[in-house]
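User: What would this chain look like folded?
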Amino acid sequence: MKNCILHLFLSAMLLVPTAGFSQAQRSRDFKDKYKLKEAVVLSRHNIRSPLSDSKSALGRITPHEWNKWTAAKSELTNRGGVLETQMGQYFRKWAVDAGLFPENYVPTADDLNVIANSMQRCIATAQYFTSGFMPVGGVEVNHRFTPSKMDPLFNPQLTKVCPEFVEEAMSQINAMGGAKGIVGINEAIEPDYAMIINVLDVDESPMAKSKDPYLDALDNYNTEIVFEKFKEPSMKPGSALKELNSASDAFILQYYEQPDTLAAAFGHKLTRKDWEKIAHVKDTYQDVLFTAPIVATNVAYPLVQYMYDELRSHDRKFTFLVGHDSNLSAVGTALGVEEYELPNAIEKKTPIGSKIVVEKFVGPDGEEFADLNIVYQSVDQLRDMTLLDLDNPPMIYPLSLKGLEKNADGLYKMADVANRFEEAIAAYQAIPAK
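Assistant: Here's the prediction, encoded as structure tokens.
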């Protein structure tokens, strides 16, 4: 089995399950046995500036000044563009090595499809990726609307909401917190809240000095979830999870963007584990809103259907879809991906710029197989802007699907994966419309 494990994994071998095979450079024996036919990639955008500016609550909850960003709020930063170009260059090396495309290939509309959500950070991510992936290919990045507007394909909105749906969704969410439900979820990450509050120096903030009632939210663990048709699942303002998620998000981005780790933490000396605690608040926020199975099935349906269509497209070789962490979380849950925690990352499920990669292979007897991985830049690769190639790849972590068996070469039967997509589609159709 070790001969089939990529030599690219050697530096991270102890951190990655050795039973898994990745879409990086594979052994000669593997390539002789399986031919890569197609890949469908669902990507999160790369580093953006925070969604809120310094005039918002995010600016008033700390006495410190946030990073001076190279982009307007919510838009892709310069660093994010460079990092995504590097990812595109790595995928070019991988595609050539795998025999999917020759070097300097000029694609057609049949074999390459690139679609981004119509938000600036997604369009820009796709543009930077394709410039590295096919620098002479003249690749067109497709998006439905003018920037910045949510495309229904990527908008994690609920299209079916009824009392039965809400009841089941809340039952599944409360189960994440055990006997105490949503309060239990909050209590479990209380040390993470304390870490963020300490690093923010909230006690010295303009809010604290003016005794702003906004700060009462930091003690409220009874988070209220809102489900409305044609809107994203959301949280009502006024709870710790809702409000501290914004600070968690901003700190994560600042840590990636700011080379000075002390400055990124407002002068506090933090360990990598401390940064993981800060990021855990955002991970929990994502889990609560988008990974209850019935919610994930609801919001992921357009992307699950589209990805399945692309995998069945006869001439397609490579599909690149650019959306958000909520898209990756919901699609993974809808498809029944086993629980995982990513190594060398502070965001443990869907790090910035991460990509779910579904590969389709043809075996020696003509049978089709599939492999699933999540590809992402490690924290050090993000912060150091490390150049990527086949000898210095990004992190590649194998994903497993609940209830499905991999063969001796670490691949699923494509028919089983196709059936899983069909099950996710059927689960959406089974949700009552009203």
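Strands lie at 35-44, 112-116, 225-226, 234-235, 318-323, 355-362, 368-376, 395-398, 412-413. If you want, I can go into more detail on any region.
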